[in-house]
Amino acid sequence: MIYLDNAATSFPKPSEVYGEMDEFFRERAANPGRAGYRLSTEAEKGIETTRKALAGLFGAREPQRLVFTLNATDAINMAVKGLLNPGDHVITTTLEHNAVTRPLNSLERQGVITVTRVRPSPQGFLDPGDIKRAITPKTRLVALVHASNVLGTVQPIGDVGRLAREKDLLFLVDAAQSAGLWPVNVEEQCIDLLAFTGHKSLFGPPGTGGLYVGGRVELRPWREGGTGVDSQNPVQPEDMPFRLEGGTPNFVGLAGLKAGVEFVSRTGTDKIRRHGQVLLSQLLHALGDDKRFTLYGPSDTENRSPILSLNIKGMEPQVVGTILDESFGIAVRSGLHCAPGTHREIGSFPQGTVRISPGFFNTGDDIAQVALALKEIASSAAVSSRE
Ligand SMILES: Cc1ncc(COP(=O)(O)O)c(C=O)c1O
Predict the structure, then answer these.
(1) Confidence band, pLDDT 50/70/90 cuts, at residue 210
(2) For FRET with 284, which of 263, 292, 306, 311 sits at 20 to 30 Å CA-CA?
């Protein structure tokens, strides 16, 4: 099986991630910080090491302001629902994943907030000037995806962050597709809320993720409960991260995430990204001149994650995905990728596209094989349409 669906989740993980989780779960998996015995204190220290490693990766000066969540979706809900008040206006984009779109749509439909959705260029890039023009006296938040999960296009978050800071707005970045792959620095890029997931380019297991909450933001707790500290307090403690971290954390998953983040830091985001971009470039060259394919997004790999959405003319993307799987042993994802707005922008709604997303453990040979398989499928489609 050739796995080319790393935008959905990275697979396989570095061997250290499996090793760390297995060893931790068998030998040291006491409930962190809930008791005074050594094993529990050690487990707590493990979580704090993960927190510090992530804070270091994202340039966050105060690690305790980075709270752990189930995934990016959980983090975005925590941010949006813990922040916004009746009458607030939010600027977002049509490139967002449903993890951003749905919480905002739901508050908009309840009449709590108003939302402006800025559109990208035909290639899938946003112009910060359009965001500036959408600001109203009621605007409180700009919510923006860093890297599109359909086109791979990377948005100028530093420019948007500085604009938001200048206009005294809060800035939420959905870094689900970019954390571990692109430089993210909450201080330099003026990010107030950074949502990320552990299971994609940070190489952690599913069920891990987090939200960095900058010093200009105070969130209402999304869930309240035990924190292992300040237990006499009838309500959620004020101190971070406990304010937003009620309940037993996924400490086995966080041990794996620590190993994943250490792998990223040791290898370097630049090297990981360049590997993916070389594979993307190979795929673009193999298919770019072939008129039987529609390739979406820019024709080069600059400011682009290793993601290619395409269609074979006259074929449903789901059919192409099934043939790739059943006849060629190649795993890709077909459909709308939880981002219907992006597909509307590029003209592939409602059927979607075939999305090919190589990862760090894919090789040039994997790309050569998927390109060959796609050409064979396209040829058989042309034959059956003539019959
Ligand atoms: C851009 C983007 N945002 C958010 C998410 C949601 O991530 P998760 O399912 O881990 O919460 C995804 C997942 O595919 C994504 O690609």
Answers:
(1) very high
(2) 263
Distance CA 360, CA 77 (A): 29
Residue 140, H or E segment: strand 139-145
Ligand 1, closest atom to CA 75? Answer: 11
How far is the centre of ligand 1, averaged over its atoms, from the C-alpha of 336 (Å)?
Answer: 13
Name the band, by pLDDT with cuts 50, 70 and 90, for residue 382.
confident
Residue nearest to atom 12 of ligand 1 (CA): 176
Neighbours of 269 (CB within 10 A): 18
**Buried b or exposed e, range 85-100, using 16+ CB within 10 angstroms:** eeebbbbbbbbbbbbb
Regarding whether 238 and 218 lie in a shared domain, the answer is yes
CATH code for the domain in which residue 336 is found: 3.90.1150.10
Give pLDDT, residue 187: 98
Distance 40 CA to ligand 1 centre (A): 32
The reply to whether 338 belongs to the active site is yes
Q: Considering the candidates 338, 344, 351, 369, report the single residue annotated as catalytic.
A: 338
CA distance 163 to 167: 6
Q: Tell me the pTM.
A: 0.97
